[in-house]
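User: Reviewer 2 asked us to show a designed sequence for the structure in our supplementary figure. I'm pasting the structure tokens here. Could you produce the per-position amino acids so we can include them in the response letter?
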């Protein structure tokens, strides 16, 4: 098929069409001066998104992931810390768990997972799609619910004071650049050994040596995780509590009322390649090697919302993954698919639906947060209260508000306790998952930088 270039006659046609409508000049000046979002904002949407909810959970203040992509960790730890503070009747309702501790073990496990994938693909071409995908992001900050479950089951959790934030846990860009460079170098070492006919045993022994060095590098950036710590807190009646020399796993098993392995990942991906009522995993997506890190049950939107409502109405927040950048305003803290009237101001007519946006890479999972409330009208949700992890400045002291129609269009995943699933849904979840390609949109949350 030949290529048709743009010629002067066609450019003249374009210019004449633009000039034919006098409103175009006004719209151009408005957008140039104010930007597209300020020009296209729908004030009716802003007025309707006010912070009143019929069902609401008091979870204390929001946390702050700062300049890092740890939203999935912050969201998951927020659900645990809320339940823990409530169960222990803590005086400090803003008690936090260490996000740096989780980040350290995530990076270390991802390094091993990556090098294992390199070994698994030693016979594949360096410029093949799978190896190229692996080398594109050897490690990053993103992750999925099931990946966090595997981390916590293996390493436990600790209070934030036992391993506080460091410069690079809060500002991860250059740390990620350096450790990704190290891992690419490690990948070359292992592939070169294979080209030199070294045995698999020799290659794995070298991999272990490389990981020993990687552990040291992580310690330089994040500090070494404590093996034990003392847990101390005060109750609301001002009684002091202390337990010494707890391991992180002991702490999790003893004090967390939330056991992450009791939850399942429900997704809504309405594409033809992912039929509803089937389970899915993503090839080469995970952190803890030897564990099935990703296991989704794909349900229609009606079922996803019903499960989300059940858990919220039972007083338990809901972790979710969405495409936060679409039709949202950070300062207002509003997520509404009617927030910006792009089509009206630009004179366009976009027909893409949710499935189309996934298929044509117009929308992917980019951020994880927590549902902490919902507004019901005659039993149906109209808007949702969202606990974010961007500090208290955006939105309403860090909380966002989501329209129910935005939930339909841009929310893709929720973590739901198994007790809220029917026997039929539990049986569906236990199906052997269909393996998706590493670059599938449903794996994108794990690739956040």
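Assistant: Here is a per-position design you can include in the supplement:
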């Amino acid at each position: 098929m030949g290529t048709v270039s743009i010629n002067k006659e066609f450019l003249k046609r374009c210019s004449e069409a633009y000039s034919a409508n006098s409103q175009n000049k006004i719209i151009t000046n408005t957008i140039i001066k104010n930007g597209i979002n300020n020009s296209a904002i729908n004030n009716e949407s802003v007025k309707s998104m006010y912070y009143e909810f019929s069902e609401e959970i008091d979870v204390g203040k929001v946390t702050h992931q700062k300049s890092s992509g740890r939203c999935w960790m912050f969201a998951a730890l927020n659900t645990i810390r809320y339940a823990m503070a409530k169960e222990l009747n803590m005086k400090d309702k803003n008690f936090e768990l260490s996000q740096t501790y989780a980040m350290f073990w995530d990076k270390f496990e991802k390094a091993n997972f990556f090098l294992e994938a390199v070994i698994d693909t030693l016979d594949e071409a360096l410029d093949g799609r799978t190896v190229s995908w692996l080398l594109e992001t050897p490690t990053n900050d993103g992750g999925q619910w099931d990946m966090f479950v595997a981390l916590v089951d293996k390493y436990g959790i600790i209070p934030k004071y036992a391993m506080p934030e460091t410069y690079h846990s809060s500002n991860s860009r250059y740390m990620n650049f350096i450790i990704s460079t190290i891992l690419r170098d490690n990948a070359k070492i292992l592939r070169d050994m294979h080209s030199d006919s070294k045995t698999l045993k020799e290659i794995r022994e070298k991999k272990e040596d490389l990981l020993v060095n990687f552990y040291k590098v992580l310690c330089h950036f994040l500090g070494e995780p404590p093996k034990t710590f003392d847990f101390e807190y005060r109750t609301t009646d001002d009684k002091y509590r202390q337990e010494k020399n707890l391991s992180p796993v002991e702490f999790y098993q003893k004090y967390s009322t939330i056991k992450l392995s009791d939850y399942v990942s429900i997704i809504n991906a309405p594409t033809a390649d992912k039929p509803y009522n089937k389970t899915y995993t993503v090839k080469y997506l995970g952190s803890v090697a030897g564990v099935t890190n990703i296991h989704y049950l794909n349900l229609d939107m009606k079922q996803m919302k019903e499960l989300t409502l059940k858990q919220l109405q039972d007083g338990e927040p809901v972790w979710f993954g969405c495409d936060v950048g679409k039709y949202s305003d950070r300062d207002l803290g509003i997520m509404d698919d009617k927030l910006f009237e792009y089509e009206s101001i630009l004179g366009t007519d976009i027909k893409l639906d949710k499935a189309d946006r996934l298929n044509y890479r117009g929308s992917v999972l980019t951020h994880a947060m927590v549902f902490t409330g919902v507004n019901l009208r005659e039993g149906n949700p109209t808007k949702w209260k969202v606990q974010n992890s961007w500090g208290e400045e955006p939105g309403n002291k860090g909380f966002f508000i989501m329209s129910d129609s935005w939930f339909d269009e841009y929310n893709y995943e929720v973590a739901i306790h198994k007790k809220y699933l029917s026997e039929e849904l539990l049986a569906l979840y236990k199906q052997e998952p269909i393996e998706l390609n590493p670059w599938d949109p449903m794996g994108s949350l794990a690739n956040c930088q």
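For the response letter, you might also mention the following. The CA atoms of residues 309 and 321 lie 16 Å apart. The chain has a mean pLDDT of 96.
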